[in-house]
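Sequence in, structure out. First:
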Amino acid sequence: MRGTGASFGIATAITVKTFPAPPTATIFSYNWQLSASEAARAFATYQSFVLTADLPPEFGAEIVLTPGNVQGNVTVGLAGGWYLPFEQLNATLKPLLDKLPAQTREPSFDTGDYLHSAVNLAGGSLDTSSAPDGTDTFYAKSLMTPEASPISDKALEAWMEVLANEGFNAPVVSCRPPRTF
């Protein structure tokens, strides 16, 4: 909110603009098991892709990095939503996928209408009537990298080495609160 400074603000009115739901939606997931150096190159390739490709606003994606299946590896996931006809997704991602190593497993695609995608992204249900959402004490920090100075190759190498080795034995905790049905 503008004008609230370091204090707080009180919303007295909210104006929203709605848009028609897209006629189709696809939730996608691509996955790789890569060495730390391969993961660094893959991340650099993705970083370059999103900075240079003319991506439509109907494309939303994230990179998910976790310790790999063996120490020294990193699991790299590319997941997201596509809100145009499915056939156009592969054409949009082809320049990226052509530069990445072979995938560890076949990509997954879940295509339906917009509401179906919302259910998928919510973990399987939009029903909040059975119980209120649980208290979530999970803390996350979003790191933003300026477009003018992307993450350097040296920093990517160091990051992936830590994730692949020191991070291999670190506990991974789900960020979703348990659901009660």
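Second:
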Amino acid sequence: MAETTWAEREKYISPLLLELRKYENRADPYSLYKHWRETAPMHHSEAGFWTFTRYEDIVAVLRDDRFSVDPKNATAPEEFLGPPPEDQSMFRELSGRVLLFTDPPDHTRIRGLVTKAFTRRTIEQIRPHVEEIVNGLLDGVDGEMDVIEDFAYPLPALVICELMGVPTSDRDRFKGMSGDIAPILDPFTDPEILQKAINTAGLFVMYFADLIEKRRADPQDDLLSALVAAEEGGRHLNMEELIGLCILLFIAGHETTQNLIGNGLFALLRNRKQLELLRDDQSLSRNAIEELLRYDSPVQLTARSPVTDIEISGETIRKGEEVIVLLGAGNRDPAMFDDPDTLDITRDKIPVISFGGGVHFCLGAPLARLEGQIAFRQLLGRFPNIELAEEDPQYRDTLTLRGLKGLKVKL
């Protein structure tokens, strides 16, 4: 198809998403969310795209199994989609392989097998090793550091590599890969950025296809071997499903934890009394993680498309129309949270939707929470006088995953 310019595509996109795309709104999307939640909480664009900003409506979508995550069930004008990636076959393969884009019954079967290997007990067992990694990273800093580059980025990368059984000698090859692939999760992406994401994902596919075969032949005490061995009713995960899970665990697991630590520490440093409260009372750790997830969610949005016409809050969503639910907006909805724009780590009952909801609730949520608790406890314990070395750090150029490019601090 012919190249489509952004000017031609813009008429199909929600005005809210266009505003969010502007860098000047990246530091504070929550004021935009507030405006749209009050004026057009269920906005419908010319192309049939919906944007939901109210907590109640978002949860209704996430919990309704009539909404599909499979891109094949969404309809969109060709003019909106723009030119496809050069390697369309790889794009289709990746979409079909990743659990994030799979509906029941396949999703139910795959998730059931994964749950056999990726249990809460498995995650809790690695707590001492996560603490060891955190201590090792913090041992190497003195005076100042970039929290993202020196800590928030390498921590989840090392944990996931260790969990999956990636050999130490191979770990450097993954540097930067998750960030390159992250734009594939955005509702619209420049073609050249999407192509780079597809190419990088292809490297993941080749690497893990080889590692999976090695684990079949010689199982180890790691998650990948457990996934290969997982069985129910005589059925195992096939190669495509295993590769898709590897991609999901590395990208979503890494990005979520990195952004939780970066966004969370930045929020605490700008709310000094809350930082000091957490520093001085580590019993607040679990609750603090929930509040930080709510206050500045690492994942800002996700999409669904109904497989039949569905009515929500008096509006009819037609089959195939894409619904973009803004998790970050829902987490600041005053109908759900008192004084939602205030950070309060003592807040009671924080039902955040930062990890999604329903059958697609994030598999890695317990791991991200564990890493976050340990990271903040050690950071604030070791460096009680930590403070910002820059007032306005830059944000990364993605909408779905919200995170900082860097965060320089004085220790």
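Remark: The longest helix spans residues 239-269.
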